[in-house]
Amino acid sequence: MMSAELLALRHAIASAGERRLIWLEGEEDDCIVRAESLLWGGVFWLGQGPERHAPQPAAKALQRLGQECDTLVFNAFSGFHPDAFGALAGTLRAGGLLLLLTPPREVWPTYPDPDRQRLVAQPEEVDRAGQGFISRLVRLLEEDPARDLTPASCDITWQPLDGDRPLSADQARALPAIHNVLHGHRRRPLVLSADRGRGKSAVLGLASADLLSRDPALTIAVTAPSHATVATLFAHAERALAEMPERLAGLSYVSPDRVAQGDVLADLLLVDEAAAIPTPLLEAMLARHSRIVFATTEHGYEGTGRGFHLRFKRVLDEQTPDWQELHLVEPIRWSLSDPLEPLIFRLLGLNADISAPHPPTSPTWRLVGQDELARDDALLNRVFGLLVLAHYQTSPSDLRYLLEGPDLDIHLMEQGQELLGVALVAREGNIPPDLAHAIWAGRRRPRGHLLPQSLLAHAGFVTAGERSYARVMRIAIHPALHRLGLGSRLLDKLVSHYRVLGVDYLGSAFSASPDLLPFWLKAGLKVLRLGLQRDAASGSHAALLLMPLQSEYHAELAQWRQRFMSQLPALLAGELKRLDTELVWLSLRGGPVTHVPDLDEFEHRELDCFAHHHKPFELCQATLQRWLLRRVMMLDALSQDERRLLIATIWQYAPWSELAARQGVAGKPALIKALRSLLARLLAQQAPAG
């Protein structure tokens, strides 16, 4: 394209507020040369390219969020990273061109894409990855409107935001609404929802700057799934406070788990990308902070607003019924007629959706292949739409894994054409002995094989690498059909299916919560490991659960389980001392600890002295610890407060003041009195060991 033609094209599409994609196919060097002839204005170059254009790898793409460009070069020869592609496409302003550099379309699906390395455990296994994601891209790119270089005809020239119009009409409504959260009635949170590119994060930053400029003592806490997520917010706040930068000290980022734990004191809490934060954390924030703004992207690469609406708005209705919502519609960097954004949505599944199915009468189960899914847009839209709806963090990279990940089984529960549920299962294990030993010794940690690697490296079970596993990565039932037992029915199907195939174990690993664990325990899985660190995004500890599918492994699992149970009290005194006591109880349910010695006569008298007389708690705590471990099954018959009293004092060394506040009593003396009374009752019942 000649320079004059290029400028004319850019001017025409800028006047319409639109952007375009130019697909450059061929040899990489030739594509780079052709791309350079099309560059203009601010350039972001992702992937391999000339140094003069400051090319960046996909891993650093999020550093560009909050910035704008006129030309975005995406070199797919360096790997097509879906999250990076989606994120940076949003930085391209009206009049901009997205230059996509790829091998010729007929060979692109078979090209050794470096991004496929993420999908496999070992580099040499990359050929085992599928081709469905790229094949689908090729099919969708062909003849898409975003590649038509003729701009739409429009009578009115589109006007970007500038000094004369610094805010969109939606932003102008949002700004005073944010002010009102701080200065109006307490417990009236605001929800800002929008598709991306509507200036949601920008208006949060501008509102923060405006409030800080008026009150130097004000403190505003910002939380989001990651610090990179709020780059736009902080960039706008910094620009707006350029004349008084010292006021920025009142604006700080805090991770979601810290906010939920109550570690943050702030006058105003801003929660950006709330859809990508687990509902329990959002509930904790709502309980601890009386002035909150929740901002969420309706179709984002980090989470979906629709799932947020289903999961969290019920909580808002119950706890803060006077909450308000504003929906931002007008795009900031492009017009509503822009064809590029719909293309990005189609390519990356950001518009995947599923309607609520009817209550089923005779649901069916089947396996669907990745190639079939890649060819059937309607089915893929339903499957990925349900996965997005059901989980707080589902990204375009998950779409690539869904269509190309090796050793992945996709199970569907349907009634007719209606999709009721989806389960994704990764086949793991059978690790070569040398590699398994290196993992056990802590010298290797390859990708994938999450269950056997964790059992080897963390739990130290040396035979774990030899076994085969079906790891349930996701199991999702449409929210409209919850509490009908469909999830349990689907899980039962998985158990039967993999047992017949001869798989040794079925398991799962996920961020554990007291609400989630009972589903898995009811199906017969046992907890074998709890992560020592809280996940910053979910605020929860990971749990690994397993059940044997073949009779010869029942004894092995029982041995692994005994090891976990006997080790847990030591961890509860240290790394897990703040673990939810209900999680502790649930993790220990399902069987006694048998190989820990029972109490002798002296220790029985010691407990009797504490329960009925005045022996100090600390002087018999060691005996209480072993007594409780031998009798964990009695916890099932106790109330939640009673379980907390035993676990938090005996195993977790909980601070007396904190525990007293949780139990609603006045300090340590009241707790000790309650503990003596509870122990006396339990001893009177003469609970047998085990």
TrEMBL record:
It catalyses: cytidine(34) in elongator tRNA(Met) + acetyl-CoA + ATP + H2O = N(4)-acetylcytidine(34) in elongator tRNA(Met) + ADP + phosphate + CoA + H(+). It comes from Aeromonas caviae. Keywords: Acyltransferase, ATP-binding, Cytoplasm, Nucleotide-binding, RNA-binding, Transferase, tRNA processing, tRNA-binding. It is found in: Cytoplasm. InterPro entries: Acyl_CoA_acyltransferase (IPR016181), GNAT_dom (IPR000182), P-loop_NTPase (IPR027417), TcmA/NAT10_helicase (IPR007807), TmcA/NAT10/Kre33 (IPR032672), TmcA/NAT10_N (IPR013562), TmcA_C_sf (IPR038321), TmcA_tRNA_bind (IPR033442). Its main location: cytoplasm. HAMAP family: tRNA_acetyltr_TmcA. This is tRNA(Met) cytidine acetyltransferase TmcA. GO terms for biological process: tRNA acetylation; tRNA wobble cytosine modification. It holds the Pfam family TmcA_N. Residues 408-550 form the N-acetyltransferase domain. ATP binds at residues 171, 333. CDD domains: NAT_SF. Belongs to the TmcA family. GO terms for molecular function: ATP binding; tRNA binding; tRNA cytidine N4-acetyltransferase activity. Catalyzes the formation of N(4)-acetylcytidine (ac(4)C) at the wobble position of tRNA(Met), by using acetyl-CoA as an acetyl donor and ATP (or GTP). GO terms for cellular component: cytoplasm. It is an enzyme of class 2 (transferase). Its EC number is 2.3.1.193.
